[in-house]
Amino acid sequence: MLLPPAPPARLELRKGRGHLFAVRAAVTEPVSDLSLTVANPFGYDDAFHVGDVTVAAGNAFACSPEARWRHRRDPAPSGLSVMRAEVSYSKLINREGEAENPTGLF
Q1: If you average pLDDT over every residue of the chain, what do you get?
Q2: CB contact at 8 A, 94 and 61
Q3: Taking the model in full, what pTM does it have?
Q4: Measured by CB atoms within 10 angstroms of the end CB, which terminus of the chain is less buried, N or C?
């Protein structure tokens, strides 16, 4: 997966402009619970719209079905934007994680 270039040291959010945020998580355990929450940082209903959150997992997670990702979106009271979005996966299996766990215990 190609990541966008690094943002400037200080990112200013302005009305009418959109920004793409990419999060890369390195999971080294054989089994993990993973959760990411994105929320409106300003506290106002429609000041910040959280768009669609997408997930792409590497080949080490091929045995974890993509259908098990849970997506939750909380709309603003006005219904015009999304205030909070969450993606999570319970018991995400990392095929390569066992090599890093010498005990073999999950």
Answers
A1: 76
A2: yes
A3: 0.63
A4: N
